[in-house]
Amino acid sequence: MPLLVTGSIGIDTIRTPHGSSENCIGGSAIYFTMAASFFAPVRFIGVVGADCPFDIPGMFAGRNVDLRGLEVRAQSKTFRWAGTYKETMDDRVTDAIELNVLAEQPPAVPSAFADSRFVFLANTAPRLQIQLLRQIQAPVFVAADTMDFWITDHLDDLTELLTQIDCLIINADEAKLLARQFNLVRAAEQILTMGPSLVIVKKGESGALMCQVDGSRFVLPAYPATEVRDPTGAGDSFAGGFMGYLAQARRTDFQTLKTAVAYGTVVASFTIADFSLSGLTNATRDDIDIRLEMLRRFTCF
Amino acid sequence: MPLLVTGSIGIDTIRTPHGSSENCIGGSAIYFTMAASFFAPVRFIGVVGADCPFDIPGMFAGRNVDLRGLEVRAQSKTFRWAGTYKETMDDRVTDAIELNVLAEQPPAVPSAFADSRFVFLANTAPRLQIQLLRQIQAPVFVAADTMDFWITDHLDDLTELLTQIDCLIINADEAKLLARQFNLVRAAEQILTMGPSLVIVKKGESGALMCQVDGSRFVLPAYPATEVRDPTGAGDSFAGGFMGYLAQARRTDFQTLKTAVAYGTVVASFTIADFSLSGLTNATRDDIDIRLEMLRRFTCF
What ipTM goes with this model? Predict the structure, then answer.
């Protein structure tokens, strides 16, 4: 079942203790789509400027990705981000950010995408996420990401968005900020009272927590990875693996949601093994399935 | 099978955002023993001064705890610790510490305890841990804890200790410090080259990682607790549940070690639910077994 994603496309410059990568492909929609394409057809919505140096159709060649929602805006410049990871790899600083085309009107949802059933709204202004969602006729399962800026400065819009989605996928610090609650389980439960029936809290190298409004819970550690060269895109890859598996399974019962979290976790472990998209594009679906079974063995007792 | 523990007995004063507890019972041997006593007979070695206000035999009444290693030193004062937890509950500051009797000669191992098979050496000077261990005739499985001070200032002694134990149970930051390695799995693998065949890294609210020298790994999140009033003693309770279950099972194959880590995790979740020992002493073995099955359901996919 096709899965719709809207998010960013970026020109990234990344420095980590293990090396650096200049002007490489990045952005939430790119990582999400590459991750999800292992599982299900992906409908891609994103916008770049005329300066975009990447062959995006070539990048997704051989994968079931519908790029009719990719807009190249002739008078605009592509989103750029530069960041440096600390020696500990668990934190980073943003060296430079140029919103460029992301500060303009978002791309429209192609009419051919309006019947999408599974939808992921990557992090952006919640007002734009609401506008994008309005263009989908009858979504079955809508997930969204957000970040601290929208929580602190656009809480009204975010509160409205939360009543319109099924699942919020959010970082731990941001979950605590949104819920005004330091205990993570309580924070997730508090967010469940704000609209979504499912909350997934991303804890980076500590894994993920999923809470459903019926009281079901699931906690999974991160894959115990020894190869970590560039954590950029881990969260969006997690979301891509998670949503991709759901779209493939065409179900959202709790057992399927658990397996989807495990797939998201495994896909993210491939992303962080190398710079930019290299970790993901070097993996196969077989590699992912093998690592899923490893993760099961590593975590079940 | 009896389990020997040597560690501290303390008079604690604890402040958390959820309340405070003055001059309550604490110390590594106390938390460890209470946790382990749900599973196996415990042989206790520890020392207090004449000022000790606690009825330690009464505290362990009805539990299979052999207190012949409890020494009351008439001319000494009991170890004291005071600490305050931050609002986030994931960090604390030490307000005051008085080593008192812990700075003196450690208690001797009673001859009746010399045939102990399972041994836990709680955190203290590695030189003392070595001396204590020498008094055990033929241990089968020895685990030890340590901390940053011994790693930075007594590394030679600690290096010697590591060649004499089977298992190091250590906090994440201290594992990284000891291994000089920021990646936690690599840090654990590095420590395995220093002597022990098993390393367990305690990650607080992020759970635990276990690595064996044969390449086996296990990762388990913390129990998703909503009741966290006082995290003091969580690590020692974890060790107590872990070692207690091993002593009960009389085996140390990897499947048993995994279940032992899960029991340690569950026991710690009871400890942190209330101040001092109250969380633990209010639990029953049935409560622990029920929560173990909950944890299995929360983590397996």
Answer: 0.91
